[in-house]
Design brief:
By secondary structure, the protein is an all-alpha fold. The chain has 6 helices and 2 strands.
């Protein structure tokens, strides 16, 4: 891709038209602009934003990357590679490889959650007894360990006890 295509080029689109063409909410477009993922657009005499073809391409890139689960920082790094590097492929691969590892870890966590939840549901009888194994399991503090820290770092979720996981071959 030619780096110049990400620059601000005609046609001029109002924010609503840009939003419709990309499927990105208007407020999200403004947010991306505030945090620097989109460069500031030209303004009409009345102060309305007027986006060019570069904005359209860039916003489509951001939306596709978000659909794949890339973080805003990862997207920023990929955009920088696209604009400022002569041969960005190796560095882009590095960013994507790190993201792929995160996705695989999330899939593993989801599989574990699926097994634990399936086990809890299977223990729950249809009767109306006051003791419900599912509710009791949700009170178990070991299930909440491994939640993400507020700092944004990922904590490794401990594996649930083997007795709780129903392995299927």
């Amino acid at each position: 891709m030619d780096k110049r295509t990400l620059q601000d080029t005609a046609p001029r689109l109002a924010i609503g038209a840009l939003s419709q063409r990309t499927g990105v909410n208007i407020e999200t477009v403004r947010y991306y602009e505030r945090i620097g993922l989109l460069p500031p657009p030209a303004r009409s005499e009345g102060g309305h934003r007027l986006y060019g073809g570069g904005h359209l391409m860039r916003l489509n890139f951001v939306r596709r990357a978000r659909d794949l689960g890339f973080t805003l920082d990862e997207i920023r790094a990929l955009l920088e590679l696209a604009e400022k590097r002569d041969r960005p492929c190796a560095e882009a691969r590095e960013v994507a490889t790190g993201h792929l590892s995160d996705v695989r870890a999330k899939i593993a966590d989801l599989r574990t959650m699926e097994h634990v939840l399936a086990d809890m549901v299977s223990r729950c009888n249809e009767d109306t007894t006051p003791d419900c194994p599912l509710i009791e399991a949700l009170f178990d503090p070991t299930l909440s360990k491994g939640a993400r820290a507020k700092s944004g770092t990922k904590a490794k979720r401990p594996s649930p006890p083997a007795s709780r996981i129903e392995r299927k071959s």
